[in-house]
Write a structure and sequence with these properties.
- The protein has 168 residues and is α+β, with helices and mostly antiparallel strands.
- It has a domain at 28-81 and 120-166.
- 35% of the residues lie in helices and 14% in strands.
- The protein is built from six helices and four strands, in the order H-E-E-H-E-H-E-H-H-H.
- It has helices at residues 4-7, 60-65, 93-101, 120-134, 137-140, 147-166; strands at residues 32-38, 44-51, 83-86, 105-108.
- The radius of gyration is 20 Å and the shape is globular.
Length: 168
Amino acid sequence: MVSLRHRLGEHAGSEKGDLTGPNPVDRGKYGSKIHLITERTGLPLSVGISGANLHDSQALEPLVRGIPPVRSRRGPRRRRPAKLHADKGYDYDHLRRWLRKRGIRHRIARKGVESSTRLGRHRWTIERTMSWLAGCRRLHRRYERKAEHFLAFTSIACTLICYRRLTK
């Protein structure tokens, strides 16, 4: 029997005498991921959290549905974006069809076909907003047990980002 203190640095599936290392099939990861949709300048529109072992493509539909109505100077409130830029993690036909059915033009990099560098012109706004969220100490490491609490703190951080950007 090995005490827990000696096993803290080891991965799941590895034993004391195992020379091959951790099981390469074991992809279960602990933690949370923050999923985010922003507008062109980096203001958060929709935010969500999921487990770290959930694939990114499963979070796109709830995020797009969660975009609140945005008031414009003329006409009715917009409920959906005109165009959506996404990286290769969202390259699935069912997501493309779903976006097309909702009338959202999409620009999703295709796996094995396109380079990620062309999408980088638009992706940096998301990365900048994620770095603003990472600056919040409460979100840097998850302390809350309940996902609702963590989502509430993430929403407060997004509200602070919007407040700081709009009061400049």
